[in-house]
Amino acid sequence: MKARSTSLRGTKKPREASGAEGGTPRSRLPHAERKAQILETAGRFFSEHGLTAQTRALAQECGISQRLLYRFFPTKEDLLAEVYREEILGHFKSVWFVELQDRSRPIEARLNDFYKDYLASVLTRRWLRLFMYASLADARMAPDYIAGVVIQLLELIVQEVAAEQGVDLPDDKDLLHEAAWVLHGAISHYAIRRHLYHAGSTLPEDRVVRMQVRMFIAGFQSYFEAEAEPSG
């Protein structure tokens, strides 16, 4: 996947929204509705063509002039910041943090429910493509999401599994993050294989989630007990 798209060069300039260039006048949408329409189109547009695609082509996709686009978003950086909030960060549900800490339920059930919902709500084709393009481009979307959301999630998963299994965790945060990436990375890569590589397993999604969660939990205690043993 290239960070830069060249497939949109040479596109025609869109007609002005007012029809001043001789076309049929377009109906004027309320400000909030027009902004929401632009953001919806921008999320799809950048996920297909990359973050370096031109705003002129985006304006044409929206059916508006580039001048009108800049009335809503004065710079491309402003637009991408809104796309991040809506398309990357906006799909994460804060209630997941609460549900993962509900110790009235077994941690295996909590993780199964979370990752099934995470796959359906976040790890979609559109989200993954946008995230990958952001990772390849000079943009803060991917590192900001990992630092602001995923790291907190990884720490919570490790803490909850450790609490149920009575495991004393070391103070090494990097080690704890890598341990949780074993599970989170496996689920994320499963989604990438399905949506981007088109090489997903024929197993039902629920079964894949259950398998990854159970394997993670099964090896958790033995790993950290071995890690705690003095070397030599």
UniProtKB/TrEMBL annotation:
Residues 32-91 form the HTH tetR-type domain. Keywords: DNA-binding. Pfam families: TetR_N. Signal peptide: none annotated. Gene3D superfamilies: Tetracycline Repressor, domain 2. It comes from the Bacteria. Residues 1-32 are annotated as: Disordered. PROSITE patterns: HTH_TETR_2. This is TetR/AcrR family transcriptional regulator.
